[in-house]
Amino acid sequence: MSATRPWDEFAGFVALLRDELGLDLSEQEAAADFDALPSWDSVHLLRLVTLIERETGRRVPVARVLQARGLREVHALTRPDREDRP
């Protein structure tokens, strides 16, 4: 069993987004759908995928991420402690 990392939980994931991507989002704002996020665009999504791959050392299931409605779904799909990802 691996050690818990700060962004295994959604709050830590949001903190990582604030620190690494410069997204000034509260946890509540980050739980909204992408279309409700201020200034969200496709460049943010590309940066997010790159960040997740760097942090986890694993490839991101991009097709599934593109189907996600928001950051909470992306977090659930890509959590570092999730072993059942394709």
Commentary on this structure:
This protein is mainly alpha-helical and 86 residues long. The chain has one domain (7-78). Helix content is 52%, strand content 0%. The chain has 5 helices and no strands. The chain is globular.
List keywords for this structure.
mainly alpha, single chain, 5 helices, 86 residues
Please give a quick description of this structure.
The chain is mainly alpha-helical and 86 residues long.
Topology (elements, then pairings):
Blueprint: H1 10-21, H2 27-30, H3 42-56, H4 62-67, H5 71-78
The counted number of beta strands is 0
Largest sheet: none
* Average pLDDT level: 86
Q: What is the CA-based Rg, rounded?
A: 12 Å
Class of secondary structure makeup: mainly alpha
N-to-C order of helices and strands: HHHHH
Shape: globular
Low-confidence stretches: none
Helix coverage percent: 40-55%
- Strand portion: under 5%
